Records
---
Amino acid sequence: MEHDLSPARWRSIEAPAVENKPMLVRAGLRRKAAKDRGTTSRRTLRRVGSYAVLTVGALIVLFPLYLTVVSSLLTQSEYVSRPPAFFPLHPQWSAYSNAFFQGHMWRYFVNSAEQTVLIVVGSTVTSILAAWAFAVYSFPFKRTLWAIVISTLLIPFEVTIVVNVQTVDSLGISNSIWALAIPFMMSAFGIFLLRQAFRGISKELREAATLDGDTSMGFLWRVALPLVRPQLAAYLVISALSAWNQYLWPLILTTDNAAHRTIQIGLKTLNAGTFSSYNIVLAGAVIAALPVLLLMVVFNKQLIRSLNAGAVK
Amino acid sequence: MRHHKLREAAAAYALILPALLLFGVFMLYPFVRNFDLALYRVSPYPGLPVHWAGLAQFTSVITSSAFVHSLISTLLYTLMVVPVGVGLGLLLAVAAHQKLRGIGVYRVIFSTTAVSSVAVSALIFGTFLNPVNGVLPSLGFSPNPPILQSPTYALPAMAIIGIWQFIGLSFILFSAALQSLPEEVLEASLVDGATPVRRFWGVTVPLLSPMIFYVVAIGTISALYTFGQMDLLIGPGASSYTHTETLSYFIYQAVTINPNQGVAACAAIALFVLTALITFAQFRFLEKRVHYGA
């Protein structure tokens, strides 16, 4: 019976009855109709089309990454053979050990890990504290200070480098890991995200805790932070990713300073190095990308939440 | 009571202080100081004092041919990356917006580009474009001069890297926006028998317009600040340099390669003003057409 209901006929039959029904019922009827149409081949066709578009998109996105991993494992003769080899029959792992040791990617990896940990811990702590103050305290100039914090979102870091280079110089830290971390140990985005989350915690809960003799900081640590874990996780993921992937600032500071060079800049020097061949450079790219790819796969939900948090106004 | 209020305020300031101090030192001070630096001309001979130049330095920087070239390259690059990146991200998100089995896997795949650093992406594409043993030249596309040295092809190659990096974010944002749309509206149009193309332009795009506006805006701003792939793959020695040098590169080279604070500060101000103008223009332009009803 259902399958011969063309949309036009369905409308002519049902429309008068639907006319007087409240919105919700009408929506329900439409949903039922849409579900009934699920058996038709048009829906299957649509689904196949979706898979086709998605798969083509996924292949385009993944192909460069696939080719990178494969090429890093090819022998020299396989790499230059035409047509190019698209699968490593005799995987050569030597490119990885060359990149790691002769190419010093190991040291750069450790430097980047240090920088990332410092930035993530530092900016998370300063953001939690400031967000908590903005969420629950009342104090003079609160609106002004909030406006100042939010206005920094409009200043891109590129615009500040001219002066920041001098600042880390005059602070005497330009030759240390701190120069790579301290300028990023705060985040307007982190404060914004966590303030929203803290404001979602009910006032009653806080007042009850105060009556129980819990201090504000004790409440923050024991109750509030566990409650905002999703937002906190989202911030941690995005903050770690952006710290690890930084390019311009580490380039300025560590191009001539191998001791503190980060992995992204290490990749540049590996590429410019005369001894490196394509497979060592590509192995280096895999080494530099692996931590963020792993983080992204494990915490995909948190990553997507944090990317979308910026879009919510 | 008053005492209590005082204590609350003191506690709040103490909590905000670390973040505020860092914002002050590394964001607000440099931003304001740029305007001061821009007014003084650095002597070409090291050791000699700087002297007051007023606005003259600013006008001479922004009318210099190096700056104009970098402005043109940046704008052309942005015009290539943003429409394609937004369009592809939207297309993929619409395709993914149904109850499909394995959709989580696709989401993870598209996220990969959003998390790949500019250094990794640039090196991957750069290796494939290598005129001697790259994959692309071996498939028959090997112009002379090679792609990365070519005034014609170098900037589009940079844009392809930028598009590849941008698709992931664009996809993720549109997917989330689609999920938040009222289901009834989309289903009603389905039942009304509209063709997929008409449904896309007639229903999905108007409903998504706030998100399209947002993705265009963040895409434009990040494209205006592009730097990494030009630094890694091209650099000042290349014959394609003047056709690919971006505004960020102009600032970078005035900070490190030919250090001149005054010039760097002028360019930084110009870049900031450009960003602010484009953000404002986009907002005004799209405000009228955006459907805020959803």
Note: Residues 1-26 of chain A have pLDDT under 50 and may be disordered.
---
Amino acid sequence: MASNGPNILKGVNLTKLRKAVFGKTTYRGIIAIIVTLIFWEACARLKVPVIGMIPAPSSVARSLTGLLFEASYWESWVVSFKRVFLGFIVAQIIGIPLGLTMGMRRTFRDLSFPIIEILRPIPPLAWVPTAVIFWPTPEMSMIFVTFLGAFFTMVLNILGGVRNIDIRYIRAAESLGSSKKDIFWRIILPATLPSLFVGSTVGMGITWEVVVAAEMIASRSGLGFLTWKSYVAGNYPVIVVGMISIGIAGYLSSSLIRFLGSRLTPWLKII
Amino acid sequence: MNVTKIYDPDGANVLALDDCCMEIQAGEFCVMVGPSGCGKTTLLNAIAGFHDITSGEIHLDGELLCSGTRMADPGADRIVVFQQGALFPWYTVLENATYGPLVQGKMAKAEARKAAEELLGDMGLKGILHNYPSEISSGMRRRVEIARAMMNDPKVLLMDEPYRAMDALTKTVMHKHLLDVYDATHKTIFFITHDLEEAIFLGSRVYVMTTRPGRIKKVIDVDIPRPRDFRVLSSERYLSLKGEAIEAVHEEAKRAFEAGERELA
């Protein structure tokens, strides 16, 4: 029963959830993964050029089983997650009010948009050297670079969301006697939520890309560093373990955002 | 009211409404018909407080609402029901209906909820109180929108072609519903449409507007007694009034078409 579950699951349609978990789509996905693994294992054993050079799934699985019992492996997860989430949260804290203000205030938009548009195309990784110089600790520079990964996407999505609000909703709200405050909290904010979550999902993906690359360049911890360290040490199966771990970590983070999004925008019926 | 409105996009003055004079009685179901672009919506927007006017004045209950120098403030005494509908998608039916009284501070939450439940129940919408607008049919959405407006007890209901995109069958049901609401409340309604049958069936008075610049060309008093139902549609009086309206509108539609041809040439 939904009502007996944790509060956050209240209202989740269990029949639909069961269908989503045990439905055709899930089986097809599992079959696809198994077929890929068999193909990969075969290529590795038959020493097929290029693809056969990648460590076989069986050796990757052995490395993974060993790593699962090592504290340092899990520490890499925690460190990378911390960097991603701190950068991401700061991007939300600064990006949401900035995007909303840019959307609502023309003068502010005219003043700030050119700056954002000049800074935006600079890849976050190009900031690494500068960040290392001007932030007091390497950790802060990592978080800063991660922040940049999500920040611009957040701002532009929210700005777009505010500017695309149908004028009818604003007029209807005015006609119903709303104050400016009501229009902001009851119309502009909920109307922007879908764009906010699109920006967050995309932004979360970028933060993982950025954090991993930044860890390879300028850090001595995290999943990116684990992968790089294994490459330098010639421990190829662990490279693949690192890559798969990064993939799973990114997937888990995006799923969390999507879940929050579907809970906070129930009218869109994503699930 | 007597209103003139000149639009000035890129310096090209477009006279949308030219000294458009009319007086709507309290409790009147006033229907405006006229060719596309004749300024019906311009007039409605000026009353609602969404647009200014160039000259003239609009009064509501003897008080000046707007003039050439003063734009009306939008307010809950003149609620608009929009052409494509404007229920807030992020609120449920019940939350939409209680929106007005809550933001105006006219009712406490529980009181507004009770009033809305009662009104929506009377309108046959009891089963969808907790649904989002995207989960109900367009006909139901329009009824909820009328209920949302009624919750504010407005002086006038401004309806901008609310049934335009609907199929004929749904429209019939919607007309009956609106007539029931009108018969029960006798609210003043300012209703814009292209559909002459709808105009005569619903209205107490039908104002035919000229092609741009919009002026009142003809006023047709619809003396068909209320309450009205679908049987009216085959009555002799209805057909003769409809004929009268068609004649007036046809002339204007032809002029509008020819003007459009000239503009394109």
Note: Residues 2-77+154-246 of chain B form a domain with the Rossmann fold fold (CATH 3.40.50.300).
